[in-house]
Amino acid sequence: MRRIALSVALTTVTFSLAGCGMLNATGDSASAGPTKGNDLTVGLLLPEKANTRYDKFDYPIIKSKVADLTGKRGKVEYANADADAGRQATQMRKMIDDKVDVILLDAVDSHAIAGEVKKAQDAGIPVIAYDRLAEGPIAAYVSFDNELVGEVQGRSLLEALGSKAGSAAKIVMMNGSPTDPNARQFKEGALSELNGKVTIAASYDTEGWKPENAQANMAKAISQIGAANIAAVYSANDGMAGGVIKALKAAGVTSLPPITGQDADLDAVQRVVAGEQYMSVYKSYPDEAEAAAQMAVAKVQGKDIQFDALTQDRVNSPTTKNIPSKLVQVSALTRKNINDTVIADGIYSVGDICTAKYKAECGAIGLK
Fold first, then answer.
1. Distance (Å, rounded) from C-alpha 323 to C-alpha 307?
2. CA 53 to each of CA 70, 74, 114: distance values in angstroms, whole numbers, following the listed order
3. How far apart are CA 270 and CA 354, in angstroms?
4. How many CB atoms lie within 10 A of CB 160?
5. Burial classification of residue 360, based on how many CB atoms lie within 10 Å of its CB (0-12 exposed, 13-18 middle, 19 or more buried)
6. Confidence of residue 368 (pLDDT cuts 50, 70, 90)
7. Which of 22, 202, 287, 348 stands the most exposed, by the fewest C-beta atoms within 10 Å?
8. What is the pLDDT of residue 13?
9. pLDDT for position 56
10. d(Cα 101, Cα 77) in Å, to the nearest integer?
11. What is the largest CA-CA distance in the chain?
12. Are 353 and 266 in contact (CB under 8 A)?
């Protein structure tokens, strides 16, 4: 799955249509959804709480954007499954029973939830896969370019290793949850950069993306390989990177190897500042969340021209082909560009990052 860039011309056309008041036109799209006014309800199902982004960024941004798009008449019904696929299925059935108008679904288990997606479709409720591509009759998908995420992580790890890269460099891979299709794409992207350039000495798929599981897996890797022989660690996200670091410190490692991450969690940004974590992948949550809200409202209101303009990409799931999609760009976050990423986008302030514990390190890289 690769991102397809939108042309400037298309963007210009889209804005011109908006200026002419034509975005309410439905056209003849075969995927035309239900038509409703501003008094609508968006069901939002998020997958877990271990990663703080969902409660801190995704939900509030989507809620605010839906309100803005509907003159504050639209509302969001929200549930978080806390990494429990069965709980998420129950939450989704409740939303179907509540007759929400559209569901934004970030699946705990993309395969297991397919039956509920079909039930929603049968009830006339379109389901838009959010952040993770669920199976079943998905109406649309919005996420980041997940293979690119892995590529960015892999390239960053090689940059950190520099002349130490090569067959003698032993790497531990701490991949995400086996039930998350994004995790497979992250891993594939990373391996496309790392294969042939380092030795993958150990690789783990981490249940539930849980930091404690990553810590336990890393302890196994240290036991098998030896802490001194680990040149770098590919960690698919920041929470697991924290677990990896705990395991390395528990093993007596004082000079940490390069470690990757993803999501730009505040703790991880502070670890990057302190030199404990080499990088994170910064993904603009406002861009993804606002796009999801726009897609959901456009789908419910039957604004097919607007919906089509928002979903110029196409992806395939194991059950559905050519899903209308929007794939959002990502970038590497390192000590060099914190100002230009999370601070510039208003995700964190310098004060958030540079607490007393990190004042000296912040000063050293010009964060004041």
1. 13
2. 25, 23, 25
3. 8
4. 18
5. exposed
6. confident
7. 22
8. 35
9. 87
10. 10
11. 65
12. yes
Question: What's the average model confidence in pLDDT over 6-10?
Answer: 33
Residue the block writes with tokens 């997940």:
146
Q: Count CA atoms closer than 13 A to 244's CA, side-chain side.
A: 34
Q: CB within 8 A of 322, min separation 6: which ones?
A: 314, 316
Cα–Cα separations (whole angstroms), residue 279 to 244, 270, 299, 336, 337? 14, 11, 37, 10, 10
- Each residue of 197-244: pLDDT tens digit? 999 999 999 999 999 999 999 999 999 999 999 999 999 999 999 999
pLDDT, tens digit (0-9, with 9 covering 90-100), for 141-187: 999 999 999 999 999 999 999 999 999 999 999 999 998 989 999 99
What is the CB neighbour count within 10 angstroms for residue 324?
22
C-alpha span between 107 and 140 (Å, rounded): 14
What are the angstrom distances between the C-alpha of 336 and each of 168, 183, 340, 345, 366? 28, 27, 9, 16, 9
Q: Which of 177, 193, 172 is nearest to 256 (CA)?
A: 172
Q: Tokens in use for 124?
A: 């006339």
CA dist., res. 242 & res. 277, Å (int): 9
β-strand partners of 77: 43
